Amino acid sequence: MTLTQTCTIPAPRERLWDFLMDVPRVSKCLPGVERVEPAGENTYQGLFRVRLGPISIGLTGNVTIEEQSREGWRATLRADATDRKLGGGMRARARMTLDPAGEGATTLTVETDLTVLGKIGEFGQPIIRKKADALLQEFAQNIRNALTA
Amino acid sequence: MSRVEAQPVLSIRLRVNGKDQAVRIPSYRTLLDCLRSDLGLTGSKEGCGVGVCGACTVLVDGKMISSCLYLAVMADGAEITTVEGLAADGRLHPVQQAFVDHGGFQCGICTPGQVVAAKALLDANPSPSEADIKDWMMGNLCRCTGYYQIIESIKHAAATSAAAGKPAAGGAAGRP
Amino acid sequence: MDFKVIGKPLGRVEGPEKVSGAARYAADQLPPGVIWGKAHRSPLPHARIVRIDTSKARAVPGVLAVLTAADLPDVLVGRVMFDMPVLARDRVRFIGEKVAVVAAEDPDVAEEAAALIEVEYEDLPALFDPIEAIREGAFRIHEDPASYANAPKEHRPSPNLQSVLRHKMGDPAKSFAQADHLFEHTFRTPRGHQGYLEPTASTVAVDADGMVHVWASNKMPFRLRDLLAHTLKLPADRIQVHLTPIGGDFGGKGSLMDTPLCYHLARATGRPVKMAMSYTEELMAGNPRHASVITIRSGVTRDGRLLARTARAIFDGGAYAAFKPVPHVNLIGANMVQGPYRIPNVAVESLCAYTNQVPCGHMRSPGDPQMIWAEEAHMDMVAGALGLDPAEFRRRNLLQEGDHLVDGHHVESVQALETLEAALTAADWAKPKPRPTVGRGLAMSLRHDGMGMCNARVTLEADGTVTLLTVTPDTGTGSHTIFAQIVAETLGVPASAVNVRVGDTRSFVTDSGTGGSRVTHVAGLAAQEAATQVRRQILDEAAAMLEANPDDLELREGRVVPRGGGPRRPSLADVASAAQRQGKAIDAAVRKEIGHYPPQFSFCAQVAEVEVDRETGQVRVLRVVTAHDVGTILNPIGFHGQINGGVIQGLGFGTMEELRLEEGRVTTLSLGDFKMPNILDIPALTTVLMEKPVGPGPFKAKSIGESSNVPLGAAIANAVADACGARITEAPITAEKVFFALQQKG
Amino acid sequence: MIPFEYRTPRTLDQALAHLREFGEDARPLAGGTALVLMMRQRLIRPACLVNIRGVAGLDRIEHANGTVEIGACATHRDVETSALVRARLPVLADTYHHVGTIRIRNVATVGGGLAHADPNQDAPVTLLALGARVRVRGPQGERQVALDDFFTDYYQTSLAAGELVAGVSVPVLGPRTGAAFLKFLPRTADDYGTVTAAASVTLDAAGERCEAARIALGCVGTTPVRAAAAEDLLRGQRLTDDLLRAAGDAANGGLDPIGDHRGSAAYKREMAAVFLGRAVRAAWARARASAADTR
User: Which residues on chain A are in Cβ contact (under 8 Å) with C43?
Assistant: First the structure.
């Protein structure tokens, strides 16, 4: 499934860019991220917890910056994680584009291709889509807060 | 998987088709698997495994339930009736006989659940209308018959039971 | 001709076992020491397997074996075309494909361990739309399908095609030019599961002498044995397939499924192994009916005569062609593009495409429901455009005696018109409808009897009873009961005097098994011929006893009776023991082989009466009329059972059944989401039978199993259009589709 | 499924103690129809199941000063067939009759259904329209939660860790009041609704105008929802087609359904409007009848 989030952040592109490329920092904006540490060139290892009602999902895996072009103000992050207990996992590729939005503001567009695998995937795609949407909205909100603080 | 290593085994008592049974089972055993694997009563079938199709229908203390969604431990001390318990002294239950005589089954896989449910219906409502039959049997899927001959079979079973003056057991009405 | 046993409403010979729970299906087999197998399945639609780590699974207490493709012979399998691995070797091609398998003491432990297997994948581009898949330059799902064993030789315009089937009659292109009007419409149908309530199960035990015993929900035991021999690299005579009752088939129970894995696990553990698919696994990785996109083009004259028709059907075959059992590895139903109509110029092209989705197989009258859904809706749309009553338009174009179908068959004993008129009369077609919200729709189809090879052995026992030995599994249709009636009728004994003994793969050399409207026809004739030979032997033996001419004797109520009457009327027991005294057995085995479809087709016309709630789009099917021209009815209970069940499967196909997929993943993974009709959903049903003893089967019977499920979907679509003007071209007809169609109309 | 500890308390306090003992990993078990299913699907794996079916009195259905008190362990079938409920709250008996099949209703409990918090369930919609309150028992004793505040998200409630649903209190209908529940089942008779709607309408003394209304919708969001805007529209009005259409549209706007096999989000929104209108009409007719009786 593809999820698109757009939000305007009261910060110049440069500042937002540097923030976004600092994966450990930016990932703290995603609710449920419990741990992120470097694991090699442009790669980070971490733990992400999310609750779907009674079901608690604990995803461990990697986040990799696949593409970053400061010139084009584009970057692509790839996340690959699995939950051994449940048997399943998720893959996400997030394409971020930064566009100027007037004086010192930037429009951040995050387009995410999300694939939910195995047992977790069987639970129900519509609900997962809803949940993912909600998370991404909070994610964007938290980035705004972090940068306006 | 330490949790699997820890297999805590529980002892339960069931009265199945009038026979007392003591069974030792892992906590997670469903009543259906307990009947089929531990007691060798394979009449009750697993169809959908999610409580929709009715192939695993059994009676617990006279009430029909989906044994695929019912933990065996929950039935500890209960009276269980399965399809194997319907025939009495070598004679088929009127419901079973009617299913044979009127084409109430074809492949037979849903039939144990159908006849147990139909028996429960006639226990609760000895002379059901067609609407009563449909309302009660709605939870028992059949892919072969299209249901028409199941309805016919149950009507005949009700008629023959009535003719035989079989007193209807107690229980709630067929529909509210 | 008046019969004693044929045509009587006899209960099933296996009835008591089935209603008492004594019948043991494949999943009910509990050989001593049996353990449980569970598969680990691919979560990805298309990927290369980089690494498989089974250590965590092996570490689970109670786990006895874990196998991957590396532990298995490197063979591909299939019912005809061998393109599918037993376990994915280097590559997975659909979500749900088996990658590894676990055996454990307890089914829950096996499932737990299977989930602990870790597989590293490298994604490959996945194709979900058959039309995309066969586009020039699309990523190859299989490197070279033509190279697979038993792959059809027809040229593949695309490497992502499993097979191409073409039929042509006359010159459609030329006659399109002469037509007054041309019409073209496109229709779609979804994947659908056969819906049998017995999930596929397999149990395999290897005995001390190395004999491999197989119990499987499989309707073709000999084919299963031979496929297993190939798959397991064993001589066929080391494999013994035991017949079990089958909990519904509807086309879906003819493949190896988990039997090879059960064998390999049994070898690895020295224990009997059972694998029973959960219904989730059935819906994710069974062998569902093909989804289709069908475009039909017709050329007609001003006065409503069909001159020409062409059609292109694209069937979504999924990741493997392995589940299709016919040599052309396509769907016979492609010929239904012509419907029951006389069309001098017809061409059809049927493409089965590879996609990265659950591989598809056969479902009850394979291809017919899809093609008739399109063809019969197309007929109404054309009739509408010509301003003709749909029934009248059909009347003008029905097949006539001796006409040809596009696949070359010619049709005899044609009663298309009689069948149509019978349905119209019973449905009050000419009468006004009760309410403006009510509509009526009509659809027709035709069906042939099946072919193949079946066995029967009839023996007169010393006690005068008769034994019929069969290896044709009864998938629920009542075939064994019918065999008993055929034998009883032939030998002049009550059906109760005939014991049906179900053999195994050692009982005969080979046998086609069940399916394709074969059984009553071919296996029924085998039983009839065997019984006839036994009858002859009985009469000869009795003639010797009575010093009479066998032709002066006949069989009645279990006795040999001189036609002219006479004091001595030996019972069959007397005859049997007399023969025994001379060391003779009264016994005959017949292998009946029929290599072509007989020309006697049977027709089906159905009328659906529906009510549409315009505010919600909800469609209620109030009433269905199903009319059939039939041969001799051997057993009315079973006969009506076939029609009733088929009608309700047609209702499901037309109104609710849909195996939904999203990015290759089946999202309807339980019978809570994949809905089939229940007892409250069924409409009032009127069945009209025109019995005419002209069938090719025993006592002039015709097949009935694959007729009534075919036209109803289109009949409902036509009724909905009649009720509210909404034309739904994509099955199933949901309230939502009708609602938005009505909104568009405004 | 994987092994778990199993407890069979006889009192609520014992039950709460067991829940405390295992914390997060413990789950109360009543009918188990939802719980066992999720365990079989391996979506949840509790370390301990606390079977509260043996807790004395937890399955009672009784009438006390204007409310029907239903114990957490009363089964759906108990409520459906209860003479008391059918006499005082027929709409509730009718609602529970619509749930699943008799096999499920024989086992699934009222409390379990509430705690399960599936927005596609039938009963919460009617209970919401009737202004029911959930009786919650926890370490600190009993608290009551209006159903409006009980459901927080898909499968989530405001139950705190270690708390249990002890029962639900449903006020009986006042004078000149009628209630109705409708479940839209376009596919098959055994399914979750595409939408569900319940309404309770109170008429003025003349039995002409709507004095107050409570309307709830199901299957149209992450929880059952009140249609407050529609309720406001009805107040003080006479019943007309336009009014019902307006009420439906008012509700429709505020909805954010999850599209699924039972209908797309867009279709569910449209149907919510239709069935809201139909439910109000049915409730209104019953309110009229009751107004006529009282006069």
Answer: 88-89, 117-118, 121
